[in-house]
Specification:
alpha/beta, two-stranded antiparallel sheet, Thioredoxin-like_fold, Thioredoxin-like fold domain-containing protein, Thioredoxin-like_sf, thioredoxin-disulfide reductase (NADPH) activity
Length: about 190
């Protein structure tokens, strides 16, 4: 572990850092810039996915492909998840491109207010982890399927339409942020 770490025995410092950064478990790796601002709270996931650290310091991407290693982020708050049929190689990338401008707009809006974005954005293909997520949240096997999952509130919001367009995604997100959507229980 080539970076500085807080010794486990230093309970006072660990407690202050836990409160300051909202740390709820170990191991946790939070990457800070030179001013002490958070670059990513997902340092552990980033290290696992980028062993050679080519993308260090791992500035957050607006849209992530849902994987086993980053699925833990679904527990951090509401997440927009666009489920696609990944057997079509271009489908996952096209889905990312479709929601990326909306994600960037939301992130920029909240960053300007010095707040964290209220949503994380994911594209989910077809794999065992995605199947487990669909089973756990009782989501249909439809693809494409636009959802917002809020695991901590045990709620889901589902937009099941034939075609997902940027306008549909933007309206869905806007309605969610304005509390206009009715949650379904998970």
């Amino acid at each position: 572990m080539p970076w500085l770490a807080v010794p486990y025995a230093d309970e006072a410092r660990r407690s202050r850092l836990n409160r300051l950064y909202g740390i709820q478990g170990i191991p946790t790796l939070i990457v800070l810039d030179s001013k002490g601002d958070v670059i990513t709270r997902q340092g552990r996931v980033e290290v696992l996915n980028d062993i050679e650290c080519r993308e260090f310091p791992w500035h957050p991407k607006p849209v992530l492909e849902l994987t086993d290693s980053n699925a833990v982020q679904l527990n951090e708050g509401p997440c927009l998840v666009l489920f696609v049929d990944s057997e079509d190689d271009g489908e996952s990338e096209a889905a990312k491109q479709l929601i990326q401008p909306i994600a960037e707009k939301i992130i920029a809006k909240y960053k300007a207010k010095e707040e964290e974005a209220p949503l994380l954005f994911f594209v989910a293909g077809e794999d065992d982890m995605t199947d487990s997520l669909r089973d756990y949240t009782n989501l249909p096997e439809a693809a494409p399927l636009l959802t917002i999952l809020d695991m901590s509130a045990r709620a889901k919001y589902v937009m099941d339409v034939e075609e997902i367009t940027p306008e549909i995604v933007e309206a869905f997100v806007s309605d969610f942020l304005a509390d206009k959507l009715k949650p379904e229980p998970i």
